[in-house]
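Today's session is about reading a structure prediction critically. Students often jump straight to the picture, but the first step is always the sequence itself: look for stretches that repeat, for charged clusters, for runs of hydrophobic residues. Only then move on to the predicted structure, which in these notes is written as discrete structure tokens rather than atom positions. Here is the chain we will use throughout the hour.
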Amino acid sequence: MTRGRGAQVWVGDARHAALLLGVVAALGIGCGGAPDRPHAARQPTPRSLVARPRGVPVASIDLGDDAAASLVEARWRWLDVTIEEVAGVELGPDARPTPSATARTHAIHPRPRDERWEEAPWQPFAPHELETRRGAGQLSMGWARLSLRIPERIGERSLEGTTLALSLTVDDYAEVWVDGRLRPRLGQAGRGVIGGWNAPSRVILTGDAQPGTSLEVAILAINGPLSRSPENFLFVREAVLDVYAPADEREGTTIARTEARAGLDEILAVDARLEIVATGFGHIASLAWSAEEQSLLVADAGRNELLRFAPDDGTIELVRAHAGDAQLDGHREGGGPSGLSFDDEGRLLVCEPGRGRVTRTERTLALTELVAPALGLLPDDAVRLASGATWIVARERDGVGLVELAAEGERVVRLAPSARVRSVSADATRVLATMDAPPRVMSFALEGPSPIELVREEASDVPLGELVIDARGHLFVAGARGVVVHDRDGARLGIVRTPGPVHALSLGEPGALYAGMGTELVRLEVVR
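Below is the predicted structure for this chain, in token form.
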């Protein structure tokens, strides 16, 4: 940002934000409005995926301006990076790295959380010196370190509960650590990792700002392109702190609750809202929340893709193309990916019906086949138990049923070969499956004889898709008119009405239940 170009601090209010959003939506500008639903004969490209913004900032602070930066007690420091020779690794068991006694490689020093980090000779500089050229060109790097403190308010705007985002551009590449952490997600571009040459980046510092709290940001500036290192310098082109309104001030639709019975208020607040967070999918077949990455995995069967939605900044990334079948010669026999879940070690399971298999993504990013094509099944959903057994919903010539594979994958037990099974889930003591004809939820005890019918639904509430279980055993079942809620024993507590049929469900971050409605991803407020 060029210094002296207008105001360095902007503060708005909710009315201004709502007005601006309305104008943007009316004109069809940017990514704020929901696109038209795709025509069946002409699917939109993946670039049409639109994440709803968190609104416009209610305040923005130019951290390259001395007066503005002082509002958050911003303090900048610089340190040139050294590249040192260190011991390397060699290939170990399961393709994992093993320390080597002979291999040599290189590493940068210092790094956050390194013992030499605080002892390094940091050079303070004023905010207005942000664009000062540093480094010696070629293969060079340096740390721009930022410390700030959250004030009670900026102007009339209280900062409590707000979301703080750091928008910055570094010449040439940048990586950003927040409070000593860098946790990239597979396929991520920008937002903490390199996003492109001189590409702007936005990193969420906190989603629940608390006045008096200190934040520490370390920005690694890298000269590039690396394969053609220029005789160039390192500098930060701009750094702006954007403040977004708390969640309870953002746009949302009040949820219609029907047939509410005692106990539903423990799950769903009376004033709970439904928010459309992303649109433009082909067809959302399954959802799964990654606690490790704090993001939602989305199986888009309509586009044959596996995607990731990051709720902290609303971005959508492609994780894997051709995720359900090979799509040879344009022929798709089995359809796109479905049945996402995580095992007890946090490894992702994906059903790939077009390939007749269920895969697990290992920590090394290698794929392991839990269900192989040789079994002749078309798996639509799967859950991996702590015992190592895998329960899957599999299509066969004689119908759709539940299949249990032993931990070694050597035997197959058909538990309900003639039933039309929709999805499968599990908790510590049982496996639950949604079925139709008639629509019901069946409970299979992990230890015990025959299954029991836990839930029987009316025809209008046919379970269309997934079932999830919260920590207290409450059941959320995807239905034609919304999400049907039951207690642990199957007693119906009510229905959360949605604008369209729900096919996919997943619990997300605390207080969130995600639902896939065809081409739209929505978030419901729940109490957990």
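Discussion point for the tutorial: The chain has two helices and 41 strands.
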